[in-house]
Amino acid sequence: MSEAGRVPSPATPLVVAAAAPEERKGKEPEREKLPPIVSAGAGATAGLDRGAKGQISTFSSFISAVSPKKEAAENRSSPAHLIFPNIKNVRDQPPISLDVRQKQRISMDASSSEVKAPVLPECILPIQPKTLKDFQEGVEKVKSSGDWKAVHDFYLTTFDSFPELNAAFKKDVTASFNTIEDSGINAKFVNAVYDTLINTPQDIQKTVLKGIINSLLREWKGPRTKDDLRAYFILLQNPQFNNTSTYVIYAHLLRQIATLVEADHHFLVHWFKKQYSRLSQKRFKQLVERLLQFISLRLFPAKPEEFPPITKCSWWIPSAAKVLALLNTANNLVLPPLIPYTDFYNSTLDHIDLMEEYHTWQNFGNSHRFSFCQYPFVISIAAKKIIIQRDSEQQMINIARQSLVDKVSRRQRPDMNMLFLNMKVRRTHLVSDSLDELTRKRADLKKKLKVTFVGEAGLDMGGLTKEWFLLLIRQIFHPDYGMFTYHKDSHCHWFSSFKCDNYSEFRLVGILMGLAVYNSITLDIRFPPCCYKKLLSPPIIPSDQNIPVGICSVTVDDLCQIMPELAHGLSELLSHEGNVEEDFYSTFQVFQEEFGIIKSYNLKPGGDKISVTNQNRKEYVQLYTDFLLNKSIYKQFAAFYYGFHSVCASNALMLLRPEEVEILVCGSPDLDMYALQKSTQYDGYAKTDLTIKYFWDVVLGFPLDLQKKLLHFTTGSDRVPVGGMADLNFKISKNETSTNWLPVAHTCFNQLCLPPYKSKKDLKQKLIIGISNSEGFGLE
């Protein structure tokens, strides 16, 4: 695959701007520079029909197609059951195209706060005298009189056209369209109108939908005015679109938004960020959930007859995905995000053919074929793990097959061992032997891993591999080894900045992490989130060896995750109200101790002679943070980066966010002991035995810290695999020993050996002693 055909890192939101019609492109004046949104090739058709190039129907054909069904259902209670007008001679929308593959990752964080919008026709807005207070008073009068006429007239007028929408909801009708930071919309008024709409009579709700149809048709036919973006922004928030019978209208609204030009998308993104960060995160989540539900019900409709045939509306899902991408971008521009990134997951996608989506993305990423992999933020981590596992398995099969073919072509007898990455190591020389083996067998890294300990009988069925990982990680991360520094305040490891002649052992750690992901092994490693962000910078190894790797934009927040005290000191420097130069007496230097010797490093040329002042302190903090997290450990991290990617060099990795890489490597911190209870297997015990009942009564009553200690004691990690507790294959075996003995754990097999304690009190006491003193205890 060419460099231009690669996808940007999912750490950055993927926002796809559809190509505008040629006539619009020619009229747009030159704008201030914006960070690029991944642009699409003009004329590409994105559909889910897997290559079927059906006619894309016009808006009017959709309306007329559903009219008979709506007419038959007019007397139902649903607000969307109305007779749509039969509208003719409406021109088709420009087709939606998708092209999200790009070598460099795209970021909108650097968007200018002031962006010149295209010069569009002025629109004379009608006068709308109603205010929020007037509207609320009108609604209150309805409660006593039962007369909805005044409210009905308000909705009829407001939703009749885009100018009316602007007149009703703009804070200042005369305000010019000149800022990206504020939409100029009275959000409280919009929310009040929509909250009331849901509880109005059916004729009012039908009136609103008819008005939206007319508004969209006018916008479809005529030139765009400068206030139309506000109208789209308002209409997208309409809760009526929760109802499946409104999906035809909703789909065309989404399509018109999706086909806006890039600069318009930037405005919408920043408006979403501003409005929902100030007002209601709950409403933002509802907006996201509405779009996810739209996608789910189009994929798996409860009543297929409610929707047009998929061949005629293959653009529905691509349109919704693009609008979701705008919301995802807005969410990521806010710190902390408005909602967790996991709220963008669509669990329905766990039940589609994920590998077909992946291969479509691989093979047709720059052409007309739509794939959910182009919008990886909607794919759950569980689904991504399936893609990565299957992709890994396919790579293993291909490598093994090639080895077999090479052997046969040389007329040599095939050996089953050639199908595996066979590691033979001595326990007494674990690190050096592992490093030698991995160096010698670099070509076999993508084969299935099997481990043998020299001098020990045993067949590796998974237990020896896990033990090898456990022992090797413990030894490498031990403070005496000097490769990593453990920070007690943050409970995580970071790369030692000490210079050395050979960084091969850092490469070994990267290979270990890659092998763990490749072979679905969860490691007990504690790296800060910043590490995984660097690991995806870039997400693929650049072809040019001179391009730096593992370098990413870092902030004081990233430093706080590793060295909270130092980060706090730098934050105080930034917020200091006095004279920084006189009070701190610092220069652009960093001092570090290396083997008992204090060494100084300039943060910029001549830094030792440049004082930190109120004017340059932001630059000082940024350079200081960049030095600690990027420059001072560049060689160490570069070796680590190349080691990891030597195993995980797969396009599937590019679907992941840094947080998701961490979960794949280390597991999830969220424990569900009830799920563990349901999936536990027993050997020598039955789940109805008294000892087992005592055990679960005790464990389910443990505080979280003791539950984590139990998990660490029995599995070697206090985290849960991506697939949940069921993937642990946790087993409780009966230990026919004295009840005075403590429990024993076989961490390589996730097995707990439990003596048949006679009382709950005795079991609890012994179990707490065992799990609280588990470092080096009971490891077999």
TrEMBL record:
Biased composition (Low complexity): 7-20
One of the protein's GO biological processes: protein polyubiquitination
Keyword list, A-Z: Phosphoprotein, Transferase, Ubl conjugation pathway
Stretches for region Disordered: 1-46
Residue span, HECT domain: 441-780
PROSITE patterns on file: HECT (PS50237)
Protein name: Probable E3 ubiquitin-protein ligase HECTD2
Species annotation: Cebus imitator (Panamanian white-faced capuchin)
Primary gene name: HECTD2
